[in-house]
Amino acid sequence: MQKKQSPLFTTRVRDALPSLHPSEKRLAELVLNFPGELASYSATELARLANVSNATVTRFVRKVGYTNFEEARQHVRDNKQAGASLFRVAPGTPGKKDFIATHVFQAQSDIEQTFHLITEQDIDALARQIIAARRVWLLGTRRSASFAQYLGLQMFQVIPEISVIPSGSETLGEAVSAITSKDCVIAFGLRRSVSGLPQAIEQVVKTGARIAYIHDSNALPELTLTWRFMCETASPGPLFNHAAVLTLCHIIATRVIELSGASGRRRMSMIEAIHNALDEV
Predict the structure, then answer these.
(1) What pLDDT shows up at residue 8?
(2) Are 151 and 203 in contact (CB under 8 A)?
(3) Is the pTM of this model over 0.90?
(4) Nearest CA-CA partner of 53 in 24, 90, 17, 13
(5) Looking at domain 101-278, which CATH architecture does it have?
(6) Bond from prior residue into 166 cis (ω within 30 degrees of 0)
(7) 9-88, what's its fold?
(8) Which among 128, 182, 187 is positioned nearest to 159, based on CA atoms?
(9) Could you tell me the end-to-end alpha-carbon distance of the chain, in angstroms, rounded to an integer?
């Protein structure tokens, strides 16, 4: 069973606010504005920035639940790595010049690094499995849900038996219970996913379905999966850059359409005919 996640650093600080002395509260206000920066400072540097003593920093970290300053810094690093946007906001960025070029360069780099590790054979094997499956399931929660929806809609042009889960008020358990060994599942594990995602995918593994897992650093190495596609999502700003994820979805959908053959073309023709009859698009 997955261990319950520790509260965010900022949650600990807010919970401790009523018990803090004025100088400690001044320090708390500083770190709550830019919590991710805590990982970059020593205790002495932080004390100087907040205009408090080193002893105040020591008392502060203990009151918010840490043994020492280094433990607090490591927790902030973990929160930043896990994908909390607030921890990725840096001070002094609004006036930054050339930010468009910086973001475009990083997106290009992410795409190149991602596809350096992905083979055409793996893409084609997944595409053929999608076409042959009884039903295709796209599993995505939180920000991953938008990519599951996008990929599902693109493939739906040639594959009618597609479900994006969870949908509406549906639980993951209800959705996973309908998956069979004849199905293909594409699961997205991009930061920050719901805490129960590893258990949900573990249940999918038990169904015997073929599974493609699209992820960033959330690799789930303990699970035996059919395909793994790791996407680089590095970004110079507070949000992860998902250009590589979208590119991968585009390539998968394109290959599914290309390999669907005559049956895929018949479905696309039927869709267009109905569009014309309804004067819909």
Answers:
(1) 83
(2) no
(3) no
(4) 24
(5) 3-Layer(aba) Sandwich (3.40)
(6) yes
(7) Arc Repressor Mutant, subunit A (1.10.10)
(8) 128
(9) 49
